[in-house]
Amino acid sequence: MSQPIDLLIEPRWLIPIEPHGVVLEGQAVAVSGGEIAAVLPAQEAQLRFRPARRVVLPGHVLIPGLVNLHTHAAMTLLRGIADDLALMDWLKTRIWPAETRHVSAAFVRDGTLLACAEMLRGGITCFNDMYFFPAAAAEAARNLGMRAALGIVVIEFPTAYASDADDYISKGLAMRDRLRGDPLLSFCMAPHAPYTVSDATLERVVTLAAQLDLPIHIHIHETRAEIEESLRLHGLRPLQRLHRLGVLGPGLIGVHAAHLEAEEIRLLAKFDCSIAHCPSSNMKLGSGIAPIVAMLEQGLRIGLGTDGAASNNRLDIFQEMRQSALLAKAVSGNAAAVGAHDVLRMATLNGAAALGLADKIGSIRTGKAADLCAVCLDTLETRPCYDPASHLVYVAGREHVSHVWVNGVLRVENGLLQGCDTSQLLDTVNLWQNKLIA
Ligand SMILES: [Zn+2]
Questions:
Q1: How does pLDDT run across 326-362, given as a tens digit for each residue?
Q2: How far is ligand 1, taken at its centre, from the CA of residue 41, in Å?
Q3: Rounded to the nearest whole angstrom, what is the distance from the C-alpha of residue 376 to the centroid of ligand 1?
Q4: How many of the other CB atoms lie within 10 Å of CB of 367?
Q5: Residues 6+ away with beta carbon under 8 Å from 211
Q6: Does residue 138 share a domain with residue 25?
Q7: Domain holding 122: CATH number?
């Protein structure tokens, strides 16, 4: 007797990420109750299972849903509002003033909805967010059925969201208490950056992260100016200061890390920290290029992030995969540095591990959540295809994503977002654009 299941997916190729570097052909993925029930030869699956739904994808590769390890989702409403400026100019003259005038719970909900719609269509099933009004971001993610790690954001200066560090922390903790039962949500302590958070606040963040077993999501060493300022004010490089305050550990997600000395890379590796590599944002703001080849040599865990749409200006992990591989080769002068399978792992399992979710997502294995992304390689611009892993990194774009499931629920079908009134969403975005122009 065949066993009833919710879904059987039969792609041409499957890249499970675990084991590393493997491309399987003719395999099927059985999904039941939101979980991967089995990965097995398609012919065997047809005998063994009676699926409520069968999805045959004869020209497609199936991979785990992509993990965006660093973003400010609501900032999609600021996409393209200020280009061609260095980080501090960009923040001080354009972004912070626009945020002061406009950011509210409604801004965050609507901006995050737009971000989730964009990310899901691009094969991203999980994002690590750092922004004000995280409960509003959670509402948007839940609305579209996307997995999210919400930042308990902390910064010293007042905003419409909170008045001081204590207020940020208590609001963030209350948000976590309210939402922690949701299987698609997880949480990080998210002190913005060493240059916007005091020693006393960072110490509190470390204590809370340890007590609540939460990762610490923080921008580090994004620019040379940040390092120079820290040397002036504290007599220490930012990373030395974080080390002294006890921030380094397996839960640390250091975002950018564009400027690291060899000794600092060894230190981060020794403490089993993770890096969120955001190559497009780093290039666009002229910040630098993170030394990921040296990081990988030290065994440092690297995931990929888009950063916010105000500094990228896309929430597109396909672009970040390609940029990561090409930049690593260009900078190291070694074409063998950072291969396609390495990049695919960064965009999936490494991001999941950084968030403490490696037992749940990031690879296609029995027992994990069915967060899956199918990419069609049967198009003019993706043929011929000798190696689907290579194509995912060097050829395909997010426009080739055909199907996306989160926790076994179909969120994108044939490129179309499910369960979202896109014309209503666009109307809302237009209203915000008019407000921001005024
Ligand atoms: Zn950022």
A1: 999 999 999 999 999 999 999 999 999 999 999 999 9
A2: 42
A3: 31
A4: 10
A5: none
A6: no
A7: 3.20.20.140
